[in-house]
Specification:
alpha+beta, seven-stranded mixed beta sheet, five-stranded mixed beta sheet, 16 helices, 43% helix, 17% strand, elongated
Length: 668
């Protein structure tokens, strides 16, 4: 592959093979070189595929399809297939049990669509073709409206064929003979990889030597310290790490409870201190009264007894003894109270140290679970090349921020949405070569994936320089589907929201890549399941940008605690754009107008308990009232709460399937 060195002084040029998966190890002369190990921060891949027709599914085309597996991506696909394939079987069985219910059929369609794309991305082309055949049966005629027993039998056969090929792939067998095809006496040989498309990779990364242990035999032998480090590596099951993270979360929950009890204890001790002060003052008054009684008796003694002290005549009665004892008792209580205060302070300091230690352990566990975004870049390059080849388009894929680390569970669930968005960018966004030249654009399109961390969120931006969203076409399709009325004049934001509707597609015909209405709705649902949101920005003729916002980790959330309706609620901090403190008169006006205007944007105004179904609690009117301006995806709202409590890092637990459909509640 041609390699171009950038002009930056501390830049390293990494030549890679056509599959963009195995770094070059030797120079043209055969001399061993040491490639850098650091994942590139900016990677640019140019794919110029030949124009190839898309074959129709069927056994005839399958006989001419051969696997070209990527050895690095295949294990990742097999791990994903172990989850997707059982889902497809269960969804097919659910549909067979209830043929009139279309939900299992649509879920099966989505699963097959994802399974097909992942298989093709890994180079399991025959498995992808088989999945495409099965997926096409669901779209043939009125298969979904009136499924027949023959259709279910055929789909079962398709699943069996998928299982056969998948089992062979798991055993390391590629291009094995398929028993249901007449492939002749000799099995089809495993073909060599096809000639690579023109591919340019430029990586601006610091030069960090790769451990020689990872180099092939052509490189120098590994030094002893590298071998020792390699021997010290330990493979740990992912579910064990997840369990440890959950246990760390439980420790945080227990610590939060102890902190709450400690706060209550401090409050009670404060009350005790005030009580001790009052008691000491009252006992002092009693002592004064007792002393005055003794002095008054001394004035009534006989003249001959004036030289004697009243105590010598036992004039110190039981009342005076009790006052002295009461004073001593108050002093004892005060001593215990002071001791408790010292113990509370010591416990508070110990709990603070334990909180730091617990947070360090939690962060270390999170760091074990985090992986750099660059670990999935190869999958994105491959899907981009395959899609460009099928569409006969040229496109550059540039990935920035590959060093940003994400939670492993987040990244695994993110790959599917990213692949959908890349396919959409090439299929719907980037114009054909001829069209781009007519519009004065370069023949090669530009697609950029930018990953960055913003506070407690990961922001992923997928941008292209294509034609942008066709709002006229979207309006026609939305009217046909009944999403908007025929005489309505929807805004561009409303039309943009329509592309996320299930079954929505602006494709003129059904192909292997588009036209099925499976894509953006899956992207939004998957991102929402991760606690994230999706924003879209588009320019007519200038391209479209999808912005994905995801939490840094799924175990701990940064929230803002508010009190409303007599209860405590935690609002995700990334949703809050601004907190306003307004006076009582302005609050009354907001309840009349039912909207807040901020930065030329209108926010519908609500009282939080009313949104959560508590109509019996009326809002409190104070001198200053708290209004939260929230934004999630394209949706915005302003919420009135009774009290702002403060920021808190909380452990979020799933509320379970029984309460999963409760509106507005994400977890507990």
């Amino acid at each position: 592959a041609p390699v171009t060195a950038p002009a930056a002084p501390e830049a390293s040029v990494v030549p890679i093979a056509a599959a963009a998966s195995k770094p070059a190890r030797a120079s043209a002369a055969g001399a061993a070189v040491a490639p850098p190990v650091a994942a590139p921060e900016v990677i640019k891949v140019t794919s110029a595929p030949p124009a190839l027709p898309i074959e129709q599914p069927g056994d005839e085309s399958l006989a001419n399809v051969h696997d070209d597996v990527d050895e690095q991506v295949l294990p990742i696909f097999l791990e994903e297939a172990a989850e997707l394939f059982p889902q497809a079987g269960e969804q097919l069985r659910a549909w067979r049990r209830s043929p009139a219910n279309h939900d299992p059929a649509q879920a099966l369609q989505r699963t097959l669509h994802t399974f097909k794309g992942s298989a093709r991305m890994a180079g399991a082309m025959r498995l992808g073709e088989l999945t495409h055949t099965m997926e096409s049966r669901l779209l043939a005629g009125d298969a979904l409206a009136k499924p027949s027993p023959e259709l279910f039998e055929t789909l079962d056969t398709d699943l069996d064929r998928l299982a056969f090929v998948l089992d062979r792939l798991q055993k390391g067998e590629v291009n094995t003979p398929l028993p249901w095809l007449d492939m002749g006496a000799a099995p089809a040989p495993a073909l060599a990889p096809a000639a690579p498309a023109p591919l340019t990779v430029v990586a601006a990364v610091p030069v960090v030597p790769r451990p020689a242990a990872a180099a092939p035999a052509a490189t120098a032998a590994a030094p002893p310290e590298v071998e020792a480090a390699k021997a010290a590596m330990l493979r740990v099951r992912a579910d064990l790490i997840d369990r440890l993270v959950n246990e760390a979360g439980e420790v945080s929950i227990a610590r939060a409870r102890v902190e709450g009890e400690l706060r209550s204890l401090k409050g009670n001790l404060l009350e005790l201190t005030n009580s001790v002060i009052r008691m000491r003052s009252q006992v002092r008054e009693i002592e004064i009264q007792a002393e005055s009684q003794i002095q008054s008796r001394a004035s009534h003694v006989k003249p001959g007894e004036a030289d004697f002290d009243p105590l010598e005549f036992d004039r110190f009665t039981r009342f005076q003894e009790l006052t002295r004892s009461l004073a001593e008792g108050v002093n004892d209580v005060s001593t215990v109270q002071q001791s408790l205060l010292r113990n509370i302070d010591d416990a508070d300091a110990a709990l603070l140290a334990q909180a730091r230690l617990s947070r360090d352990v939690q962060q270390q566990l999170f760091s074990i679970r985090t992986v750099p975004f660059g670990s999935v870049s190869e999958r994105l390059y491959r899907i981009m090349r395959q899609t460009a080849k099928e569409l006969d388009k040229r496109a550059n894929l540039e990935i920035r921020g590959t060093q940003v680390e994400l939670d492993r569970s987040v990244l695994e669930k993110l790959v599917g949405p990213l692949e959908h968005l890349l396919r959409n960018a090439l299929d719907h966004g980037i114009e054909s070569r001829e069209e781009r030249l007519k519009r004065g654009k370069p023949e090669t399109g530009e697609i950029t994936v930018t990953v960055r961390q913003q506070g407690n969120e990961i922001a992923i931006e997928i941008a292209d320089d294509g034609a942008g969203l066709d709002f006229n076409r979207i309006r026609e399709k939305a009217q046909a589907l009944g999403l908007i009325t025929g005489d309505a004049e929807p805004t561009e934001a409303r039309l943009t929201e329509c592309i996320f509707a299930p079954g929505f597609s602006t494709a003129a015909k059904v192909t292997q890549l588009s036209g099925r209405g499976v894509g953006t709705d899956v992207v939004r649902s998957d991102i929402a399941a991760l606690g994230g949101r999706v924003d879209v920005a588009t320019t007519r003729g200038g391209g479209t940008t999808f912005l994905l916002y995801l939490p840094l980790t799924l175990a701990v959330a940064q929230t803002v605690l508010v009190r409303a309706g007599g209860r405590l609620w935690a609002v995700p901090a990334p949703m809050i754009q601004q907190v306003q403190q307004i006076k009582d008169k302005e609050l009354i006006n907001l309840y009349l107008t039912r909207e807040v205007v901020w930065q030329d944007r209108k926010y519908p105004f609500f009282y939080l308990p009313r949104l959560l179904g508590n109509a019996g609690h009326n809002p409190e009117t104070l001198r200053y009232n708290s209004i939260l301006l929230l934004k999630s995806g394209q949706s915005t709202t302003a919420v009135h709460v009774d009290e702002m409590v403060g920021n808190q890092e909380v452990v979020v637990k799933n509320i379970g399937p029984q309460l999963a459909r409760v509106s507005g509640i994400a977890g507990a």
